[in-house]
Design a protein that fits this description.
9 helices; Arc Repressor Mutant, subunit A; 2 domains; single chain; Rossmann fold; alpha/beta
Length: about 210
């Protein structure tokens, strides 16, 4: 796969060749990049986690079923949104897939426009998730550059404590607090106190802190 490509990719996994051809034609008609797979195993071999996109997945397939693939995807930490495409008899299974985190399910025969809209929404959702993940990673990298003392000063600053209070609490001089504060602001790339506080809130949220 071309690593330089940045366009989102829609993966279509269905053992029915006619369905794969039909969906490829539909998606390419709106300039979406498509990769079709005849089996769950084939998808796992070709999936590129560096690209945003979504997975359009049939429930009933020989070998690994759509639900089995969904479980494997979750176990491997793959975040791609899954749209289940299913026949009427498979609706209970599709509902089960939704409860397990699928983005949506659409019954066959499906409305082309509805499917395209949901695919676009899934791609947008995945792109947003990836941006948030990259943002969290970037903030974590900045935080890791701080010395233990700078982290202490940062914690106190975002709690609203003044430089004098911080100096007293940490038993260091006011000038030392000011130096640490200047350094940590540069390392965190925060040009204002409000930006630093926002970063701290975001970091806490990414760790599940209230």
């Amino acid at each position: 796969m071309n690593a330089a490509r940045i366009d989102p990719v829609v993966y279509v996994v269905d053992d029915d060749a006619s369905v794969r051809r039909s969906l490829r034609w539909l998606l390419e008609s709106v300039d979406l990049a498509v990769t079709t797979c005849a089996s769950a195993k084939e998808f796992l071999e070709v999936y590129d986690e560096d690209l945003a996109g979504c997975l359009v997945l049939d429930v009933r397939m020989p070998g690994m079923s759509g639900l089995d693939l969904q479980e494997k995807i979750q176990a491997q930490g793959i975040s791609v949104p899954i749209i289940i495409v299913t026949g009427h008899a498979d609706v209970p299974m599709a509902i089960r897939a939704m409860k397990s985190g699928a983005f949506d399910f659409i019954e066959k025969p499906f409305n082309d426009q509805l499917l395209l809209e949901r695919i676009q929404e899934a791609i947008a959702h995945h792109s947003q998730m990836r941006m948030q993940t990259e943002r969290h990673q970037e903030l974590e990298q900045r935080l890791a550059q701080l010395t233990p003392r700078e982290k202490e000063v940062m914690d106190a600053v975002v709690q609203g404590r003044s430089n004098k209070q911080i100096a007293r609490d940490l038993t260091i001089s006011l000038k030392t607090v000011e130096t640490h504060r200047s350094h940590l602001m540069k390392k965190m790339q925060a040009n204002t106190l409000s930006r630093l506080v926002a970063m701290a809130i975001e970091l806490d949220a990414s760790k599940g802190k209230p």
